[in-house]
Amino acid sequence: CVDVSQASVESSETFPLSFAQQRLWFLDQLEGQSSTYNIPLVVRLKGALDCEALQGALNDIVHRHDALRAYFENVDGTPVQRIMPRLDLVLELNDLRHSTPKEREAQAQWLMLDEAGTPFDLQTGPLIRGSLLQLEEQEYLLLLTMHHIVSDGWSMGILVREVGALYANHALGTPSSLPELPMRYVDFSRWQRQWLSGDVLDQQLNYWKQQLADSPSLLTLPSDRPRPTVQSQHGAMLSYAVPAELSIKLQALSRKTQSTLFMTLCTAFNVLLARYSGQTDICIGTPIANRNRADIEGMIGLFVNTLVLRTQVDLSLGFTSLLKQVRTHTLDAYTHQDVQFEQLVEMLQPERHASYSPLFQAMLVLQNAPMGELALPGLSMSVLDSKSTTAKFDLTLALTEGKDGLYGDFEYSTDLFEASTIERMADHLTRLLYAIVADPTCPMDELVMLGDDERRLMLSEWNDTFVDFSDEGVHAQAIHQLFETQVARTPGHVAVIHEGTALSYAELNEKANRLAHHLMTVGVRPDARVAICVERGVEMLIAILATLKAGGAYVPLDPAYPVDRLAYMLEDSEPLVLLTCLTDGNRARLDPTLQAQTMLKLDLHADVSRWAHESVGNPGLDATGLSSQHLAYVIYTSGSTGQPKGVMVEHATVVNLIHNHVRTCALTAADRVLQFASFAFDASIEEIFPPLTVGATVVLRPAELMAPDESFLQLLRDMRITVAELPTAFWQQWAQLEEPERHAGRESLRLVVVGGEKAEKRHLDQWRRTALGRECWLNTYGPTEATVYATAW
Fold it and tell me: How high is the pLDDT of residue 4?
């Protein structure tokens, strides 16, 4: 809490912002108030606390350091800072002693997160606040939060030390033991803008212009989720530690190579990022205290600068070779550290994107001066680690040197990464560091990062994908055998529905068998092609199944295709038989082309008497001579890169797809699957065959239904669709509908499968907002040559 009434008279004088402050002011104006740049401090106090002495010490510090009394205004388009003549902090005491230990811990955690996550208003201030939690009779937590625009990491150490000194003065009634500060922060801001200009600025900028010329705009670490269009800065932290014996070996390696520990860690971090990303040109950020004048070392304020360290990583070389490059670049960067990061961005004009920070997206921090524990009169004081829920960059590794080794955190963007991914990365880094100290000359692409369990998982378990395609294996079956097995299980269950026409499994099987026997009599045999040009309807499934049962491979011809394309496909595939079933309009349009072909032609309506007397029994593989290695279908590509090409697919790979799709989609006999795609498009394979092998019902889309309108939603309701397999473009139109249309028709829906082209995350976000909680959404992708799809997520 802050007693603002004590700051009733504000200074009329305005001061310029330092370059670093100007950057944070700009971000605040751009993004609005947020807690991203809050700096929280949690101090544990044990002993007989004198609350008045503590509050007096804090107020002495606020009075001593003008930066803590600053607030910021926009004057004629230019940000300026003003200084409150007086500002008194009032620590509000939250007494948690009456809660149970478990409740007390939860309350303290919530209050710490709430304190750290509450934004500041830069325009009104104050930009420091604090409160006090009492846990036990002689145990407290002091919560202090400052905005980064008035403080930095070095400043936090100053604050803790001065609280310790001034608390002792107040508790003992002695005068302040701290010397007067030689200058104010606003004096530094003025000096910085005057000094860092002209030839000095040009010389520094020229170095960075050469060093970062053509540097990569983005470090593409493999992420668990797609990068959002706008960086939210939602984050989390994972504790990380380097064991003491490994830290000692890293120090020894640093001394041997005349490097600092930071340089050694920086080199290892670059190796990790290069191995993860596959990139050899790596840019990372690192903070530097930027207190290269004695008169500013003891001041609280924003002095820290960010340096961009660029490294060309040749993984075929040894670690020590790369360390030499990092050492040189780091020393050069220190020499030119006065150029503020904000000036670099302004000068270099890198490609800007709202989804990631400019120039670098990964940061390495090494603190070699931990604050530790302070002894005060009747009181001990220690600084606790506070866990952030924000992430300024994709990835930050912050380490501190301690007596038990290196310790710190991985801070990461939760927009991109799962905690488990960062846990693996941390383990890889530790193993990498062990490998480096064991043999610093080993080529970096040979340094071991994987543990035995992970190596076994990746090389053995994930690659244990053997499928038995022998004559005895389950995948050796033909597609229609799986269907016939299901017919025997559920002969009376509805197999297919189209606009009021429904066939049971037994009826569909019998109709397909009669036609199959006839096709065998006219010469259809394994690998012989049967072209099918039919309208959407149950005849489509009858023709497909009959072709497969006869041992042939079907070639689907969509009657809606242009005549020239159909003619080419017929000539290229050389079918033995052409099956047709067309409406008057399509017959008039296509007959001249179809009749000009020389193959046998059968009309599924007009010629049905030819096979009406055939057997309804399954032909069987012995009669056809078919095996799982024979051709199942030929589906033509779009021809977008030239002439359409017929992709020939065997039974075995489709059977493999069927088993996988049933498992992936958890298909059962209770499902009603919407068959949407043209049967000349390979997506129809996953919509037709997997459901027919588990007893589900395939609902064929009406031919005229091509938009997610009321008729589509009514179809979902009337048919009680549980699984909808849709083209991406169609689904995205549905996702963009206004409420309640977007929700309509989804009462029975449990799964939506989307494929064919890239789906945009913003549409999925819209979709999720109206999901009923039981829907799954599956995105599939794969070229026709890979048997429909190769990946599903």
Answer: 33
Flag whether pLDDT at 346 surpasses 70: yes
Confidence bin at 428 (pLDDT 50/70/90): very high
CB 154 within 8 A of CB 303: yes
DSSP string, 47-115: ES--HHHHHHHHHHHHHH-GGGGEEEEEETTEEEEEE-S--EE-PEEEE-TTS-HHHHHHHHHHHHHHH
Q: What is the predicted pLDDT for the residue at 3?
A: 43
DSSP for 178-206 reads: SPPPSS-HHHHHHHHHHHSSHHHHHHHHH
Task: Name the burial class of residue 52, with classes exposed (0-12), middle (13-18) and buried (19+) by CB atoms within 10 angstroms of its CB.
Answer: exposed
For residues 384 and 140, give the distance between their C-alpha atoms in angstroms, rounded to a whole number: 12
Where would I find the beta strands (DSSP E) of 148-259? 235-242
Query: How far is C-alpha 633 from the geometric centre of its chain's CA atoms?
Result: 38
Q: How far is CA 646 from CA 571, 590, 593, 680, 684, in A?
A: 11, 21, 20, 11, 16
Per residue in 3-19, pLDDT (tens digit) is 433 333 345 689 999 98
- Overall size of the chain counted in residues: 793
* Rounded alpha-carbon distances, angstroms, from residue 713 to 498, 676, 748, 765: 16, 14, 12, 20
Q: Tell me which DSSP letter residue 738 carries.
A: P
Give the 3-state secondary structure of residue 427.
helix
The token pair that represents 732 in the structure block: 């995205």
| DSSP 3-state of 238 | strand
Name the CA dihedral angle for 498, 502, 506, 510, rounded to a multiple of 10 degrees. Answer: -60
Q: 721-769, pLDDT tens digit by residue? A: 999 999 999 999 988 887 666 666 678 899 999 998 888 888 888 887 7
Q: How far apart are CA 750 and CA 755, in angstroms?
A: 17
Name, in order, each residue with C-beta under 8 angstroms of 665's C-beta and a sequence gap of 6 or more.
690, 723, 751, 753, 778
| Measured CA distances, 470 to 239, 474, 476, 548, 653 (Å) | 51, 8, 6, 20, 13
Intra-chain end-to-end CA distance of the chain, in Å: 49
| Distance between CA atoms of residues 164 and 144, nearest Å | 14
Is-contact 527 631, C-beta < 8 A?
Answer: yes
- DSSP class of residue 234 equals B
Among 514, 550, 508, 559, CA closest to 532: 559
Would you call 774 exposed, middle or buried from its count of C-beta atoms within 10 A (0-12, 13-18, 19+)?
exposed
Residue 162: name the closest of 233, 57, 78 by CA.
57
Calculate ∠ Cα 639-554-791, nearest 5°: 60
SS3 360: coil
Query: One-letter amino acid identity for 126?
Result: P
Q: Phi and psi at residue 241, in whole multiples of 5°?
A: -145, 145
Task: In whole angstroms, give the CA distance from residue 183 to residue 555.
Answer: 85
What is the distance between the alpha carbons of residues 240 and 455, in angstroms, rounded to a whole number?
Answer: 22
Buried b (16+ CB within 10 A) or exposed e, 238-250: bebbbeeebbebb
Residue 553 pairs in a beta bridge with 529
Q: What confidence tens digit (pLDDT) does each residue in 376-420 have?
A: 788 888 888 777 778 889 999 999 988 888 999 999 999 999 999
Report the Cα 604 to chain-centroid distance in Å: 51
Q: Is residue 402 classed exposed, middle or buried when 0-12, 13-18 and 19+ CB atoms within 10 A define those classes?
A: middle
Higher pLDDT, 153 or 81: 81
pLDDT digits (tens, 9 = 90+) for 473-500: 656 789 999 999 999 999 999 999 999 8
DSSP 604: T
Q: How far apart are CA 606 and CA 345, in angstroms?
A: 75
Does the structure show a pLDDT above 60 at 370?
A: no
